[in-house]
Design brief:
The chain is α/β, with parallel strands linked by helices. It has twelve helices and seven strands. It folds into two domains: 183 residues, 3-Layer(aba) Sandwich (Rossmann fold), CATH 3.40.50; 95 residues, Putative methyltransferase TM0872, insert domain (DNA polymerase, domain 1). Bound molecules: S-adenosylmethionine. Keywords: Cytoplasm, Methyltransferase, rRNA processing, S-adenosyl-L-methionine, Transferase.
Length: 297
């Protein structure tokens, strides 16, 4: 299976409030969420879905209401304008990589299989994991491991990489893992997961593109339009939470003339929605999912 959609019913229930409306799925993947959105739309409804991965295109849906756009969602606003769409009723983003991307061993996302250091969601882009590991400076690497992987030993990891690559370039996921054979066995799985997450976030500029998309999503949503985001790690969730609460990522939101904070969104639930035990049992990728929905004020 290409990808088993997470929080499918909950997300689409939150998203679609107008069957005749225009909707966007920023992360088409296997098309699970997109199909469910189409199920809820009338003949007048429309859905525009994005995916930057060429592999996702083969899952396209043959439906006159549907358009699949092979583009990074950081170009949300302009890509929709090319289809004469300037306002939409709802936007969904189910972030991160698909199971298919993890399962395709040669793409280098999985900590379990040996593969060239790649980790690009869009195989047309220049930056890949091999360049990050072999070309970035020691300090830059340390920052990536610390901030994106939340790895406390970031400085040492960066030093080990830079020391090793002086004699031999680091080509594969196995080459990389071998450098850290001193990590105790009971910690190694979590360590690799954090290390690979950090590199993947850098290669795909995941936090930057998420911020760009959220700002554009706000711009193109109609008043009362809904933004639903499912994230899989705390760095993403923190950005989404702040943006839905304050309409910005840092600092204090603006106040109105009475001194009250100006709201960008009304939250459907104050706390994030997480999958129930049954879903997590059936789909391990659901384990870390958190969903937040905002209604544009
Ligand atoms: C978790 S999967 C989505 C699965 C989908 N909801 C489903 O039901 O099959 C994330 C997908 O979004 C795509 N993606 C991630 N970041 C993207 C971005 N910045 N622009 C476009 N597509 C992106 C990935 O290539 C991947 O196919």
């Amino acid at each position: 299976m290409y990808h088993n959609p997470v929080l499918l019913k909950q997300s689409v229930d939150d998203l679609v409030t107008n069957p005749d409306g225009t909707y966007v799925d920023c992360t088409f993947g296997g098309g699970g969420h997109s199909r469910e959105i189409l199920n809820r739309l009338s003949d007048k409804g429309r859905l525009f879905s994005f995916d930057q991965d060429l592999d996702a295109l083969k899952n396209t849906i043959d439906d006159p209401r549907f358009t699949l756009i092979n583009q990074n969602f950081r170009f949300l606003e302009n890509s929709l304008l090319m289809h004469s769409i300037s306002q939409v009723d709802g936007i969904l983003a189910d972030l991160g990589v698909s199971s298919h991307q993890f399962d395709e061993a040669d793409r280098g996302f999985s900590t379990r299989s040996n593969a060239p250091l790649d980790m690009r969601m869009n195989v047309m882009q220049n930056l890949d994991a091999k360049r990050v590991i072999n070309e970035y400076g020691e300090e830059e690497l340390a920052d990536i491991f610390y901030y994106y992987g939340e790895l406390r030993e970031a400085r040492k990891l960066a030093r080990d990489i830079v020391h090793h690559r002086k004699t031999k370039s680091i080509e594969t996921t196995e080459d990389l893992k071998k450098l850290f054979s001193y990590i105790p066995p009971h910690k190694v799985n979590k360590f690799y997961a954090q290390l690979f997450q950090a590199i993947r976030i850098e290669v795909n500029q995941e936090l930057e593109v998420l911020k760009e998309m959220l700002v554009q999503a706000y711009n193109i949503l109609k008043p009362e339009g809904r933004l639903v985001v499912i994230s899989y790690h705390s760095l993403e969730d923190r950005l989404v939470k702040r943006f839905l609460k304050n309409g910005m990522f840092e600092g204090e939101p603006e106040r109105d003339i009475y001194g009250n904070y100006k709201k960008a969104f009304e939250l459907v639930k104050s706390k994030a929605i997480i999958p129930d035990e049954k879903e997590i049992e059936e789909n391990s990728r659901a384990r870390s999912a958190k969903m937040r929905t905002g209604i544009k004020v």
